Amino acid sequence: MSAPESHSVQVKTQAIAPEYLEAYAEQDALAGRPNPRFKQSSIYCSRYLAIRAELVGPDQFSDAEWDLTLF
Fold first, then answer.
1. Which residues contact 20 (CB under 8 A, 6 or more apart)?
2. Is 24 in contact with 4 (CB distance < 8 Å)?
3. pTM, 2 dp
4. H helices of the chain, where?
């Protein structure tokens, strides 16, 4: 038996807690792969770029990482 459609839509639109976004950003930054799913989140982008800048410096940012500076 499947859930009513209104319930599934509600689950998809819930926000992700800021502490989870920061944790995702930290893990992605350590791996050097930004997640495009979160590229419009200022919390994610700020934390990701801060970690990457410490690790490799802005001169070594990839194109995908530079895209995050727009948000």
1. none
2. no
3. 0.77
4. 5-12, 18-31, 42-55, 63-68
3-state class (DSSP) for residue 39: coil
pLDDT digit string (tens) for the chain, length 71 residues: 555 555 555 555 688 999 999 999 999 999 999 999 998 999 999 999 999 999 999 999 999 999 998 86
Alpha carbon 59 to its chain centroid, in Å, reads 21
Greatest Cα pair distance, the chain, in angstroms, is 53
What does each C-alpha distance from 16 to 9, 47, 54, 56 come to in angstroms?
15, 15, 25, 28
